[in-house]
Amino acid sequence: MPQFRLDKEIPPQENRFTLLGPEAGHALRVLRYKVGDKILCLDPAGTRIEGIIEKIGEDLIAGSILNRRPFKESSLKINLYASILKTQAWEEVLEKGTEIGVAAFMPVLSDYSAITLKKEDYPRKIERWKKVILSAVKQSERDSIPEINCPRPLNEILGHDLAGDVSLFAWEKLRGNQDQDFDLEPVFKNLNLQSLAVNLWIGPEGGFSEKEVELLLKRKVKPFSLGDHVLRAETAAVVACAQVEYQAKRALLLKSPLG
Length: 259
Ligand code: SAH
Prior knowledge:
Blueprint: E1 3-5, E2 16-20, H1 21-30, E3 38-42, E4 48-57, E5 60-69, E6 76-82, H2 87-100, E7 104-105, E8 108-109, H3 122-140, E9 147-148, E10 152-153, H4 154-157, E11 166-170, H5 185-189, E12 196-202, H6 210-218, E13 222-224, H7 233-255
Parallel strand pairs: 1-3, 6-7, 6-12, 7-9, 8-10, 11-12, 11-13
Antiparallel strand pairs: 2-5, 3-4, 4-5
Helix pairs in contact: 2-3, 2-7
S-adenosyl-L-homocysteine binds next to helix 7.
């Protein structure tokens, strides 16, 4: 069931909701919601409510709240440091990354990126990227909306140490290497943590330059392999996110008292 974004937070004692603007317009005109239908909405704090529609107007839906589920902080936070790609490939990274569970997108300007972005275009681009992310949030029924940051050059981001528990970069030069040291599983195995923030770096179409690899290694970002073949950057981003999500969640579950 799709979910719609409310403009304002719903306080705990509130029992009514109002959905306005293009979100309501989409529900009414495209998805044909009617009075009496149930609807799922997400407020800016990540509270998801199920409501029943009692009133509709021009770009307005209002009704009563039937139940709510507060936002649960996830124990895994993936910060995806993905090099900017051409529009379609980049939007694919945003869409699929959101579906898989990326917490924050950090667009990276790398030496071998196939596109260059002008600073004055950032606000327009970010608006568009937010739309792509939001529609993937709805589609995947996620409880939280991933952050999207301004594009920044790789060497600027790596000008100092990164926050987070684990930092990794996908390096196609390691493919075919049998050394288990470049697998993801052992990375998460020996971490004794209740929650985990992972910085995951993916290169652009042309890969990371030698200088960039040097800098990543200097900052203790650990290289890992995604198998025997060279993947397109957007494929690599999706596969890497899915693998990290799986391995890290597994490690966290095994550590939890219920695990
Ligand atoms: N160097 C190549 C391809 C770059 S692939 C070229 O010159 O065309 C784009 C990005 O995807 C890489 O920077 C890397 O982060 C990731 N990637 C692709 N295949 C990979 C693999 N088998 N293992 C790890 N990372 C991979």
